[in-house]
Amino acid sequence: MIKIAIPLTLGTLLLAGSVSAQEARPMARPAARPPAPVERTAVSFPARPSVVARGLESVIGKDVSALKRQFGEPRLDVVEVYGRKLQFVGKPCILDAFLYPESKGGREVVTYVDTRRSDGAAVDRASCVEALQRR
To answer: Which of 66, 72, 80, 112 could form a disulfide with 62 if both were Cys (CB 3.0 to 4.6 A apart)?
Structure first.
């Protein structure tokens, strides 16, 4: 009899312990009023800084047509989701100009320039711009 009583007692205790606390508690009353929604205002982004590295004034802030007038047709014109990259190539260097919209739906202008030699070695950006303008 003890062999049966012990497992039955343990089983009963396990079942009693599995009753959830929510079932045992009385139901709470709903809150009188839902909290008022928080009012949020849109934050405007600050204007882009206008610090331009010396020697890059003729490129930074320019649009596609201005770049084509300065350097001719680009070797690459890559349109991306949020911007565009134009690549101009000359004997002294390769210039990558990265253009992004001034504002939502605005015209794309150069915000960054990267330069290198054809072997991948670094080149001064202003020197590359000047060399490509002279050709």
So the answer is: 66
pLDDT per residue over 14-44, tens digit each?
666 555 555 555 566 655 677 766 666 555 4
CA 1 distance to own-chain centroid: 72
Q: How confident is the model at residue 106 (pLDDT cuts 50, 70, 90)?
A: confident
Output the CA–CA distances (angstroms, integers) from residue 70 to 29, 47, 75, 85, 129, in the order listed. Answer: 74, 27, 14, 16, 9
Rg (alpha carbons) of the chain, rounded to whole number:
34
Contacts of 2 (CB under 8 A, 6+ apart): none
List 96's β-bridge partners, or say none.
87, 114
Helix (H) or strand (E) holding 95: strand 94-101
Q: Are 64 and 109 in contact (CB under 8 A)?
A: no
Residues 6+ apart with CB under 8 A from 77: 84, 85, 86, 87
Query: 0.85 exceeded by the pTM?
Result: no
